[in-house]
């Protein structure tokens, strides 16, 4: 049920003004009054974490609710306003839920400061991944509570953001819709994305820390060296929230607690998803390969990257999962060379490594190649397979950027016809208007004309995902913002996670995890689907409409690759 906030007209001269403020303070240090929906109704609890069945459910919420969300006692007060109901799906019927009913709560005269709160249980925005709704705040926020935080502002860095005309609207959206306790999030304009060496990434982090920022969103993709940016920020007491694919494992993020966070599952978990899909398929024939293999029992190869100037990803968890189900993959490694003349592409050394791998796989009858490489290495694989007339099944994941429509559309169709795998990021929608990042920009500027170019849309998607995680933490930290309260809020919140037609991942950040979600969807390539990313034919389709699977939920057998509806 949604709650509508309404202001009352100013009282007539001489009349006593009602002290109607919908608040949520947990401590007796800041006792505020709320307008009663009935004369006997007591004040609501600290935060509207559960559904406000009118205000009754808020009144009855458990007293420990504030602590469960990591909010410091004293200072969290609130109001909610209804938004248009979004298309939530009733899990019992599979149909859209009816519009939510509303209740009206009055505010003091001339009050215009309101926050949105909708759904059941209530969350902060229409996005089903948004955090539990918190009450509107009025009071002392503690002023300077951490580096980059004062009474009026939170200084942030956005080094990898894309087009300014889009990014600034996203920033305005999150400032408008999330509760920041009297502060505004501002772009410090510190840092930036340069080159690809570890020293460059570290220097960028030092520049950001020197600018006294509280947190930074994603660094740009520099093929592994971005790890040095995040670790250097952590060493200097700055939070980072990465919304892009990344090769860090959970143990690395935990080592830097409370400073490093990701939107998508960490590499160890994401790679295991692909391994578990391979395990589900292992007892069948390579039915999605070229003609020479379609009646051949699957035999697996594994393609990895190594790095000369970046941490090599930990492939151990994926390999262990494959071995546990009886898959003994033929492994090959291609080194990432940051040769300026190669443009992060093939060098003579990497070309030779790929040739050796392909020759070995074919000589050993490998029907299915599991790819855990950066997309720049993956495109070398596609090119060489095509030149050799070798058409195995190709299993991809989103690590790193392999599940992008625009990237795969540029590869040989003789190979993409055999491509499938998993995607850990949220499902791409068939219509761009259904994307929450698109809606956020157009809420700030209705009718906004997007500066369309290949990459603009998925750039906005990366920006939005990092900002969603970051602003969730800022809101859940409460008014006394610091890295510890940020982490406590993220890990203790009870995320609403309502069913939704967009089929996003389930937010499962919790004590001991630093990724926003840990599930994935099964994907396969369709040459006929028209992608939102670049407006041409060719895009990834989703099994079961984009159903998300946790580790251990892949079952046995083919889930319907290339034969079921596209799911977009």
Which helices and strands, and how do they pair?
Elements (H helix, E strand, L loop, with lengths): L1 E6 L48 H4 L5 H4 L33 E6 L45 E5 L6 H14 L6 E4 L10 H13 L4 E2 L9 H10 L3 E4 L7 H6 L4 E3 L4 H15 L18 E8 L8 H9 L5 E7 L11 H16 L4 E4 L3 H14 L4 E4 L8 H5 L3 H4 L2 E5 L12 H9 L11 H21 L6 H10 L28 E10 L6 E6 L26
Parallel strand pairs: 1-2, 3-4, 3-5, 5-6, 6-7, 8-9, 8-10, 10-11, 11-12
Antiparallel strand pairs: 12-13, 13-14
What features would you describe in this structure?
The chain has 568 residues and is α/β, with parallel strands linked by helices. It folds into three domains: 139 residues, no CATH class; 175 residues, 3-Layer(aba) Sandwich (Rossmann fold), CATH 3.40.50.2300; 183 residues, 3-Layer(aba) Sandwich (Rossmann fold). Helix content is 27%, strand content 13%. It is built from 15 helices and 14 strands. The strands form three sheets. A seven-stranded mixed beta sheet has the order 9-8-10-11-12-13-14. The chain has a five-stranded parallel beta sheet with strand order 4-3-5-6-7, sandwiched between helices. A two-stranded parallel ribbon has the order 1-2. It is globular. The two termini are 29 Å apart.
Key descriptive features of the protein:
about 575 residues; Rossmann fold; 3 domains; seven-stranded mixed sheet; 15 helices; about 15% strand; globular
Counting helices, strands and paired strands, the structural category is alpha/beta
Number of domains: 3
Rg (C-alpha, Å): 25 Å
What would CATH call the architecture of the largest domain? 3-Layer(aba) Sandwich
- Classify the oligomer: single chain
Please list the strands of the largest sheet in the order they lie side by side: 9-8-10-11-12-13-14
Q: Globular, elongated, flat, extended or rod-shaped: what is the shape?
A: globular
What is the arithmetic mean of pLDDT? 81
**H-E string:** EHHEEHEHEHEHEHEHEHEHEHHEHHHEE
What is the beta-strand fraction?
Answer: 5-15%
Q: How far from one another are the termini? A: 29 Å
- Percent in helix: 25-40%
